[in-house]
Each structure stands twice: as structure tokens, then as C-alpha cells.
């Protein structure tokens, strides 16, 4: 019997004792190492932490803690957002044979002139203040006149509590766009710390995130990958989007299916190992805590409207957007197919340790030394 399995096999019977608790602590610490898990360090270097699961949205319970939005589309889409019963009744939401979660626009009804197309917009009942939000999906909506988004929205008065558009695009675009909308006093810092391209407005980088200014453009970053939105994203099996929101700012990563990191698949995400994000809002020019408050998670699919409607004529799509809306065959790809969405929160491992780096090293060493002592003690007292 190895040292570790000895400890592991002793744990279940001894859990209620002090020795058992120490043993459990040691197992927890060792399993971090044994699983090859990377511990994360805060940017100021004073805390070590891991991202631990807070909420899982998947399978048959996916919609249980979401509200179905039924008002008019604030972005002026030609859409009729349906309530929960209508959405289930018309098969706009359902679960596939593989237990993936489906959310889609109506692709069966031929519409008369001027009637909006049925679709779905859902909003999480739970509100978050910081976290790591990860979405694994096989398909995301696209098509002429289609405008989907996976985003988070602050409670209270828009845009003062912020909006984070993590996944968004229109028509047959191939590049996902990440956008922030905030109150005044928040700008995007142009740096080489992300791989995407800052969206321009009249030939100028649009760095102002103020949602009350310049026609509500917000500040946006377009991904470089051609597989981050649209037909190519779906064709290669979808992938994973991740948004990290903490004191260090707000960062977004995306991974096409074959590139999804192992730590995401095993549920132990370590963003520090993912390389540069595609988009990043640095805290130096936009406080991520005060500008983003009480965020719900939203999925929607709208049609035409402020983005897909206004860009339609120059998109290469045929005819006009309102004409396009009438034929259900145009909306077979207006569909989300989701494997899971998970929200992780920080769990600090060594508390806050202040002082110089050598003091920090000593403190960290002390934690490992005490863990080792606890390990030896529990091993020998078990015998
Ligand atoms: C370092 O950052 C963490 C959050 O990541 C914070 O809790 C802590 O107070 C900070 N420590 C110092 C010394 O600024
Ligand atoms: C619009 O959605 C509501 C439910 O939210 C539904 O009752 C109604 O039938 C829909 N309208 C049309 C024209 O389908
Ligand atoms: C279920 O999974 C299998 C194998 O991964 C795949 O071939 C099939 O198309 C999936 N079915 C659905 C409804 O997604
Ligand atoms: C509508 O979409 C669903 C889901 O993708 C698909 O199974 C169905 O065949 C489509 N219906 C039509 C008439 O295209
Ligand atoms: C955020 O939510 C909390 C709890 O509901 C509430 O007390 C607070 O006023 C909200 N903050 C804002 C800015 O809306
Ligand atoms: C704007 O942001 C700066 C730095 O984040 C802060 O010092 C200042 O108080 C803010 N001003 C307003 C009006 O919120």
C-alpha cells in the first residue's frame, strides 16, 4: 500500500476525529499536487487560491433557476420572447437525447409581414459579483438576421452596474466580439496583454466603455479566431468560452473543441495556464468591482434589431432583414446546444500573507511543512 492510498483508505472511517480532519486536509493538499493542479496566485502575489465550483447549470435542471424574459427586446429586435410554457410547448427549449440543453429560435413557422419570430431570452435568478464563468457548447446560433449573445448584466439601472458581452455576433460572422458597457469613467486600456483586436469607430480605437455615450457602442474586442463564431465554430464541434472577473479585471478566453484545456475538462480550471486571453479589461482604467455589480447570466437569440438589422444591408445577406424573417428555413442554425455552464469562485488556500517575497516564501514553506508534519502524524498515529 502506498503512502497516499494508506491515508486515503483511512479517511472514511476516521473523518469525525481530529486526526481524520487533519488527514482530510492533507489529502486535499496532496490531491492538488497529485492531479497536477496549478495553484493560482493573486496579481499582488500575496494570496494563493484555486477556483472551486459554485454553480453548475446542465441537463434537465438547466432552466430551473433561470427566468424567461417576455418583454419587448430592448435592442429593438423583431422577436417575440416566449414565456417558459410557450418555449417548452413549441420546442424552443428542450433536452437532446444526449442531455445537451437546446435553446432556439422558431424554425417551423412561416410568418406574415410584420410579425415577429418567436425566440428565447433567459436570465439567471442568481446574481454574481466576480467569478469564473465557463460555458461548454456544441453549437451557437448564427445565420443572416440572427443575433445571439451569452452575456452578464448588472442589476438596477443600466449601464451603471455594467454589462459584459462574452459571446456575441450577427449573421454569418466568423469572429466573436467581446464588449463591455459601463457607466461613465471606464475605458479599455490598449495593451499587448490580449490577442484580440479593439473595435474601431470612424477609424479610431473605441476605448470608451460608457454605455450612455456614442450610441451605446461600448468598448469591444474582436477575436482573431475564425472558429470563434458562426458556421466554423459549429462545424468543428463548438468549444468553450470562459470569462474571469475579479480584482485583476475582466478577461475572456475561447477554445475551439480540439483545444479545450484539460483543467477545464476535469473541473479544476487554472486560467493562469491558458495563455493570453482574447480580450481583457484592465483594472487600471476601469474598476471591475464598482463598475460591475449584481450580474445575472443571460442567453438570448434576437433577430434584426440594432445590430443585425442596421448591419444587414452591408452584410452580404440577401434581401432585407424583415423579409428574411418570414421563412423558417432561414433559422435552422439559430440554435444553442449547451453541454454545461459552470460558475467558479475563488477559494483562498493560504490566507492573506503580507510582506516581502522572502517572507512570503517562508510563510508558504511553513504551510507545506505543517502539512507534512500533519501527514506524518496522521500516518504514524493510524498505525
Ligand atoms: C492582494 O489581492 C487580494 C485579492 O486578489 C486581496 O484580497 C488582498 O488584500 C491583496 N493584498 C494586498 C497586500 O494588497
Ligand atoms: C409571443 O409569445 C407569447 C408567450 O410569451 C405567446 O403566448 C404568443 O403566442 C407569441 N406570439 C406569437 C405571435 O406567436
Ligand atoms: C449524441 O452523441 C453521439 C455521439 O457523440 C452523436 O453521434 C449524436 O449526434 C448525438 N446526438 C445528439 C442528439 O446530439
Ligand atoms: C428545426 O430545428 C430542429 C433543431 O435543430 C431540427 O431538428 C428540425 O429538423 C428543424 N425543423 C425544420 C423544419 O427545419
Ligand atoms: C446588489 O444587490 C444587493 C442585494 O440584493 C443590494 O443590496 C444592492 O443594493 C445591489 N447593488 C446595486 C448597485 O444595485
Ligand atoms: C473615476 O475613476 C477614478 C479611478 O478609477 C476614480 O479615482 C474617480 O473617483 C472616478 N470618478 C467618478 C466620478 O466616479
TrEMBL record:
GO terms for biological process: glucan catabolic process. The lineage of its organism: Eukaryota, Fungi, Dikarya, Basidiomycota, Agaricomycotina. It comes from Cerrena zonata. Residues 41-316 form the GH16 domain. This is GH16 domain-containing protein. Keywords: Signal. GO terms for molecular function: hydrolase activity, hydrolyzing O-glycosyl compounds. Residues 1-36 form the signal peptide. SUPFAM superfamilies: Concanavalin A-like lectins/glucanases. Pfam families: GH16_XgeA. Coiled coil: none annotated.
